[in-house]
Amino acid sequence: MAAFRSILFTDPDAANDIDDLTAPDCFADLYLDQIINDVVQGNADERLDRYFYLPLHDASAVIYRHEVFRDLERDEVRAPMEAFVVGMRTMRQRLDRSGRLWHPLQRQGWFVYAVQEFCDTVAALGDELGRITPSSRGLREFADYVASYVSGDRFRTLVAGIGDVQAELRKIRYMVHIEGLKVHVDRYDGQPDYSLDIAATFDRFASETAKDYRVRMKDFPDMNHVEEQILQCVARLYPEQFKRLDAFCTQHRTYLDATISRFDREVNFYLSYLAFVRRFTDAGLRFSYPSITDDPSSIRADDAFDLALAAKAAKDGNTMVCNDFHLTGPERVFVITGPNQGGKTTLARTIGQLAYLAALGCPVPASQATLTLPDDIHTHFERQETLATLHGKLDNELVRIHDILSRATPATIIVMNESFASTTVDDSLQIGAEVLGRIIALGCVAVYVTFLDELASLHRACVSMVGEVEHDDPTKRTFKFTRRPADGLAYAAALADKYRLARDALVRRIGQ
After folding, report:
1. Phi, psi at residue 372, to the nearest 5°?
2. Stretch(es) of the chain classified as CATH 3.40.50.300
3. What are the tens digits of pLDDT across the range 26-42?
4. What does CATH list as the number for 283-511?
5. Which end of the chain is less packed: N or C, by CB atoms within 10 Å?
């Protein structure tokens, strides 16, 4: 049989402990928890989010996923996969119902339904994959695997067995005779069925306006005691058929192919993310497959946006503002400044989100991008002060940044959002300069959101990104960021205007 194990991993053993994973520490600060919850919402696999907790660190593994994503963007490839997922979900529902039922014969009946759905679903997928030509290595190898599996003895035996059992069960005919509280079950040998005659006789009294006195019976999963006894009587009347049913269930208890079952779960990673992306592309926003580089000075993204904010904007009917960012030469640190409520934190989150999504092998929210694969993403955002640590806010911030710097490597990405703002300006500047110096010495990529303009020109490794305001009204934020020296003038003008301290306002007040 063709060699294939995973549609997500070039090293299938990488996901051995997938169900034990928890969300990375950066998720909450970067709003990745909201994004992934939105992606997997409504999916039958409650553990699908685990696959989004395991970023890749190998460019070839990312390219492997890019190819599969591109294949699944084609309707003729995606439609059979979606039908396969629906069929496998139906199979699991039937299998789950079989496991919850009390009566053994009823359990066996639902087990047969589950196996039948599996056979039909896999056979249909094999036919569809034989008619299309996937471009990705992953789907080509899976198509070869399915073709080999469907033509193999194991699957053929399973299909033949399910056909024989169902054919035998369809031969069963029995009669139920009810007299008072007595129920008699016997073989059906052509005895007349009076139910149709009775219905025809009383049909003449039917009226469209007649009140319906029938009582709707609840359809419980398990049979009631009368149904159970009828089924047991039928089994005694047809022992050979039910013996074959029992033999089939025993023989094929482990019918489910592990590779196909794994594919069923993993392909939902692609389908759910693509469905999520279509919500934004339909609104005119652009996604792209980032080029992966080992050179931090080549990092760039055009028309990038915060996915979590975009999801909220779509619900509220608002438009998104996109931004560009890039590093060249010795540049490693984005120092983001600008007026409050001007989008500084949003831009920092955007950069972090793109880095993480790129490491998942997913399309990223940007028209084009070149990104590295970080070994980890650390965030240093403001935390509420807590009595549990017995430390002040600044102490906690210093402990956290020390822990981050002790674990960071040149391949790490660090995102800091207005750190050390709880202390004086001079102390905040001194601490910020020291931390930035250590980050620069490491040579890793970082984002530093600050209200201190001096940090933007601390070192040639720092790139100053300034949030802009409207030229004719500095109180209005544009949420656009440009690469230019930080001067704080736009913010100062906005504050002066807000508190009526601008030159024109002062002249009018003095003149009064």
Report:
1. -95, 170
2. 283-511
3. 999 999 999 999 999 98
4. 3.40.50.300
5. C
